[in-house]
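Can anyone check this?
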Amino acid sequence: MAIFSKSNVPQFSVDVYQNEYLPEGGREVNAVVTVTATGGGTIGSAVAAPHLYSPGEGPSAAVVLMVDCSGSMDYPPTKMRNARDATAAAINTLRDGVHFAVVAGTHLAREVYPGDGRLAVAGPDTREQAKQALRKLSAGGGTAIGTWLRRADRLLASADVAIRHGILLTDGRNEHESPEDLKAALDACAGRFTCDARGVGTDWEVKEVTGIASALLGTADIVADPAGLAADFTRMMETAMGKEVADVSLRLWTPAGATVTFVKQVAPTVEELTGRRTEAGPRAGDYPLGSWGDESRDYHLCVAVPPAAVGREMLAARVSLVIPQPGGSVQSLGAQGLVRAVWTDDLAASTSINPQVAHYTGQAELAEVIQEGLDLRKVGDMDGATAKLGRAVQLASASGNADTAKLLAKVVDVVDAATGTVRLKTKVEEADEMTLETRSTKTVRVKK
């Protein structure tokens, strides 16, 4: 176990991009806020969260791997074997000193290793013991994902660590509990740990898996070929091991008369944060950003301000970063940005759209029209689906989102990307459609 010091902790910065000029009487202020964490270490290295400065305070992280062991994992039999191999690869990636456990998920949640409601501490012996325990995993039973998440929450809560993380793998639909039960489990776990979710094969429900990741501030993806699980699990665990600061919140203060219209993450994925606000004193609210390593993310803010006359200016919002502490206090991360409003009669200045704001407005629309288009296709509205997916092709092309453009090209034949003229393909592989839906929220950053 490494000896941690404050030098391990990344430094945060906040940059604000906006056109602050409004016409006389204008009310809507838009800004893109880039949050960057640097200098805390590299992925996979031994790093610490802010309150773990002294040696001997224990490991900085805990991880629970939840592996679907329902009956469908036996079809084909290689799927279960690939899942065991992937979990073993993830265990190999754990750094020494991290608390961990493995849970087999069916209509129940069974602790595979170490058992008895405990977490193991990663080291050569425990990693080997865990991999031996994985050999006993077999498929049989139903699927009740909320049960898995609640078990993971109890295990993770038993460790006095800063970073709590889950990795969840499923191959089927959540058929053995109600949607209300799953939502209740997600509500109970939100803010307590982050969770990456993966769907293997093509028999699972995209909105269930992406909903889990969204609620728990993790990532979601498809692994259509089970043979790719080991590489994907290794990457996920490497990223988890690179997290250094947990429970970061974006604090948004607005002056009297101003209201927050929305807050959303726009890079590396689109994620709505508006409804996740918790009040933080007079005219201030906190929006959860999850755990951070060395990385950068972009957020789009929209604030409605009181209308004013030409020549007036005001602070529309103050953005800062904090970590909530026990007892209601917060730890400031020292980074701050200001969003301004200036009223002008210069038509060119007040009608100009900031490039970052314009870009991410398009990226958010891209994610939305892909979802709408695929939903319309599923219910047989081919004209509506063609229009929505055509708009998606147009937006992907204009913004340089090549990865999404390639995924769209597997669902539609592109006649003219610039105008969004497309034809729906008559035959689409299920894996291609699910991949497009799962990855529809992935964005690209502004072209330089």
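Reply from J.R.: I decoded it. DSSP finds eleven helices and 20 strands in the chain.
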